[in-house]
Design goal:
single chain, 338 residues, mainly alpha
């Protein structure tokens, strides 16, 4: 995972490297120190409601802008315009989260930081990583518009009273399908050849959540979300456009955070928290970090939204730093919106 391109003469950078720098997508700032902690040092925590606050704010503002457009013009967005608008806002929200996580990293450090720094985008794959980021943040809104968008409906009319249930169910169901797809990718020799690239990073950072072969990307970006959406519909969930959009924002928040390696005690925001707590199945950032650091072809911690299916199917890995006795419950961390 050699990554030295940020120290090169800027005149030698390719277009993708210039774009990543312009957008501030780096996990760390080269001119600032990152604190290093021993594994037994106490860890600050992020209250559960902070995650809900962040996600709902960033999920709702595009819907409000869309609704205002209808009020002002008296007509709804065309399908193509809606795709363009939500594609841009999807990217904007993801970049905002990456910026927030970088600031937190410089304040609270990273897991296993006493042994290894966070991996950066490698010199040889900057084009592929940015293209993956762009395709993910473009294709997912296309899927959302194709499956749920209707010009006859304004966004507010597609909210349902099922939304609190949908938020929790969507994460758990998506994680069920992802768990088995992910586990089979590790255990099947042929499929592992498509997944092994993603595991070249042992200390991932948010952009490296997209460091993968194209075959894996298709299933991650299109296959699993569509299967999950279909499952939800078969269960009788409305999954209107606004509900679907908000569920997607919960997923992308957790996916980026799960690859951040931030040394903070945080569980993915979900309305299924009481159920997950009962089964000791809440996911922590360290869980997926250990999947990369300690696992290879024979691995563990396959879930990316919860630890529910790992718990039920016996593939949990013991935590090292994010243990109950190591958490400083007197130091809550606020996720300021701006």
């Amino acid at each position: 995972m050699k990554s030295t391109w940020r120290t090169w003469d800027r005149k030698t950078w390719n277009h993708e490297q210039k774009i990543m720098d312009l957008l501030g997508l780096h996990p760390t700032d080269l001119n600032r120190e990152v604190p290093v902690f021993a594994k037994t040092d106490q860890m600050a925590y992020v209250p559960h409601m902070e995650g809900h606050k962040w996600i709902l704010f960033h999920a709702l503002w595009p819907l409000l802008v869309h609704q205002a457009y209808i009020y002002i013009t008296g007509k709804n967005m065309h399908w193509a315009a809606a795709f363009l608008f939500y594609s841009i806002t999807y990217k904007f929200n993801a970049i905002r989260e990456i910026h927030k996580m970088r600031e937190l990293g410089h304040q609270y450090g990273y897991l296993d930081g006493d042994k290894h720094e966070r991996d950066q985008v490698p010199d040889s794959r900057t084009k592929e990583v940015l293209h993956s980021l762009t395709s993910t943040a473009t294709i997912r809104p296309i899927v959302s518009c194709f499956l749920a968008y209707a010009t006859s409906q304004d966004p507010f009319s597609t909210f349902s009273w099922h939304l609190p249930l949908e938020i929790g169910a969507y994460g758990a169901i998506l994680d069920f399908w992802f768990y088995w797809y992910h586990r089979v990718m590790h255990e099947n020799e042929t499929l592992w050849s498509f997944h092994r690239t993603h595991h070249l990073t042992k200390h991932p950072s948010p952009l490296l959540s997209l460091y993968a072969d194209s075959v894996q990307e298709v299933f991650d970006i299109i296959g699993i979300p569509i299967i999950t959406y279909g499952t939800m519909k078969l269960m009788g969930m409305p999954m209107g456009f606004a509900d679907w959009w908000i569920c997607q924002q919960y997923v992308v928040f957790t996916e980026l955070w799960g690859h951040s390696g931030l040394r903070l005690y945080i569980t993915p925001p979900t309305t299924f928290t009481p159920v997950l707590k009962f089964f000791d199945a809440e996911l922590l950032t360290e869980d997926h970090d250990l999947h990369h650091r300690k696992g290879w072809k024979n691995s563990h911690n396959y879930g990316k939204q919860t630890r529910l299916w790992d718990r039920l199917f016996g593939t949990c890995h013991e935590r090292i730093e994010a243990v109950e006795s190591n958490i400083d419950w007197d130091t809550p961390v606020s996720l300021s919106l701006w």
